[in-house]
Amino acid sequence: MDRKEAADEMDKTVAAVKKVCRDEGAGSDQGTLFQLSRVMLPDDANIMGTVHGGIILKMIEEAGSIVGTRHCNTQNGDRCLAALVRVEKTEFLSPVFIGEVVHVSAVITYTSKHSLEVQVKVIAENILTGAKKLANKAALWYVPCSLQNVDKITEVPPIKYASAEQEEEGRKRYEAQKVERLETKARVEEAIPPPPNPEDAPKERYTVGFSQSSLIHLVGPSDCTLDDFVYGGVTMKLMDEVAGIVAARHCNTNIVTASVDAINFHRKIKKGCVVTVTGRLTFVSNRSMEIEVLVDADPLVEKEKGKYRAVSAFFTFISLDKENKPLNVPPLKIEGEEEQRRFEEGKARYLQSKAKRLAEKERQQ
């Protein structure tokens, strides 16, 4: 592929994104559209050369944050930053490898008075052959926070819709995610026990306790936005890393992120907090593992505020052989009523997701 052909391909990608703007009911002005591209490096990938899901999630959030912040500052009033509050279920459709260029396109598809929906597409390009593949699709929800007062949510400028039907579809998505966020927040306030101490009696292999893992991270300036709160993408990357460790400990094979259930950002995390990111297996099918990941923040300076639950999500991983073909996953050994309850809830989510995929496949045929 010569330079002219490559340029033509990129023009087609831009045209496709603009079509998404029209199809999803977004405005066609440049303020509602943003693109970023980056080549994938060895630091972005696992030992098999597959790019970590957390890297892709971080790029998705960066694009969403930029287009959201840019749009919310197109009107007079307080300057603001778009803060991530929720990521809808995200499927990793194709693996991305070292050396490929990732193109992330973000478009605003719905606005309410105080929030906006951003839909993102991720295209991976092999720059040696010119081949491109759809790697990921995601929908994110943001609220604009004033730089003068971070607790103040500013108003979002409305976008233009292609039709009243598309605006109504966006409103339905908005109402649905609002209800789910409230339900999830009420469910995840329970404390999660610490991982087993290596000096204690070893846990039996393939149990929840055997693979449960935690990362502890001190939030520094490089993790934060202009108002000293953590970027959502930084948190998602840490969550993916912990989930990957859990999956690898359970399978002892090469593992990759297959999907992420809705990620809910319950409370902001400020610079100087110590965050504890904990992952534990909740459900295992023949070919996949569901891992619950919880993020707790503990302010170092303002200790009177105490530790709190900041983010929660379910990650799904699959096990692969050396040729990147799926392997069977070892069954999970359940211990106690609480683990059994979480297993049954995970099974219900798995069956529901499977039914949705089959229905979508039939609809496209």
TrEMBL record:
GO biological process, one term: fatty acid catabolic process
Active site annotation, chain numbering: N46, D240
A Gene Ontology cellular-component term: cytosol
EC number: 3.1.2.2
Keyword terms of this UniProt record: Cytoplasm, Hydrolase, Lipid metabolism, Repeat, Serine esterase
Domain HotDog ACOT-type: 30-148, 209-323
Annotated GO MF terms: carboxylic ester hydrolase activity; long-chain fatty acyl-CoA hydrolase activity
EC main group: hydrolase
Top-level taxon of origin: Eukaryota
Keyword Lipid metabolism: yes
Subcellular location: Cytoplasm
Pfam families recorded: 4HBT
Entry protein name: palmitoyl-CoA hydrolase
Natural source organism: Fundulus heteroclitus (Killifish)
